[in-house]
Amino acid sequence: MNISVVGTGYVGLVAGVCFADTGHHVICVDNNPEKIKKLNEGIIPIYEPGLEDILEPARRSERIQFTTDLKMAVEKTDVVFIAVGTPESADGRADMGPTFAVVKAIADAANGPKTVVLKSTVPVGTAKDVQSKFDSMCKHPIEVVNNPEFLKEGAAIDDFLRPDRVVVGCRGEKAEKVMRELYAPFVKNGHPIYIMDNTSAELTKYAANAFLSVKISFINELARLADKVGADITSVRQGFTSDSRINPAFFYPGVGYGGSCFPKDVMALIQTGKDYDVEMKIVKSADVVNDEQKMLIVQKVKSRFGD
């Protein structure tokens, strides 16, 4: 299958290289000429274990190429993945400007039917909005699909090649068939592909990151209590996470969550709830606890070592 991936950041680059590794022909697009030049020379702008090992064979066999020419990429491919950033705006919502700019460029370049896949984390309702834009701007039929990523930095290649699950949000059988074909090599060992509507897929991604954030805040708050009552939080953790109903992952006390995804996605989910008059009380509390945890760690360091 001929695929293009718009955006060669963490998500886009990993997706493009992994699809090429399974035999698809992939064109990765970015508006940064220097980055594209380096990628075409085999120089990777991010560190991810295993990425270089699968990029080199794909590059040598010409199953993957890198370009700044989005129009050419769209014209030559049937499936277009959008993997550009959705940074947090001042009000906590995701900034969709870069995504909508790519949507317009795809609509202008489309020379036939296309499947456009939103790989980026996008607000609930984005697919409907994007589909409406394509329907009004493009003379060719475009099917919009949501396919959120669940990658962990440092284990992204393994996560992509051997996923716990693949989530696909779409509304037509043709798009579903395309996505099943694309992901067939990655789920042959029985990992599920969950097909659902676009809105459900969008909410699934936010739900996953928000729940992991809640787990982190819960164990940090519990650790505070353990300190006060004289309990050993490691023993407590072992005791309650040995329950088969409780997954022990992410139940480790520490400085709290951070990075490029969890804080942004937590705020986006809170804002989405606000938009629909649903107060996300648990998620909001997790955010408050997380902010407190950072200050608590600072205070502990100061008390131990001084200012």
Helical proportion, percent range: 40-55%
CATH topology annotation of the largest domain: Rossmann fold
Structural class: alpha/beta
Tally of DSSP helical segments: 12
CATH class of the largest domain reads Alpha Beta
Describe the largest sheet: 6 strands, parallel
Return the average pLDDT rounded to an integer: 94
At the fourth CATH level, what is the homologous superfamily of the largest domain?
A: NAD(P)-binding Rossmann-like Domain
Write up this protein.
There is one protein chain. The strands form two sheets. A six-stranded parallel beta sheet has the order 3-2-1-4-5-6, sandwiched between helices. It has a two-stranded parallel sheet with strand order 7-8. The protein starts with a strand and ends with a helix. It is an alpha/beta fold and 307 residues long. The chain has helices spanning 10-21, 33-40, 51-60, 70-76, 97-109, 126-137, 156-161, 173-183, 198-229, 233-241, 262-275, 281-305, and strands at residues 2-6, 25-29, 64-67, 79-82, 114-118, 142-146, 166-169, 193-196. The protein has twelve helices and eight strands. The protein folds into two domains: 2-196, Rossmann fold; 204-305, N-(1-d-carboxylethyl)-l-norvaline Dehydrogenase, domain 2 (Orthogonal Bundle), CATH 1.10.1040.10. The longest helix has 32 residues, at 198-229.
Short synopsis of the structure:
It contains 12 helices and 8 strands. It has helices at 10-21, 33-40, 51-60, 70-76, 97-109, 126-137, 156-161, 173-183, 198-229, 233-241, 262-275, 281-305, and strands at residues 2-6, 25-29, 64-67, 79-82, 114-118, 142-146, 166-169, 193-196. The longest helix is centred in the C-terminal third of the chain and has 32 residues, at 198-229.
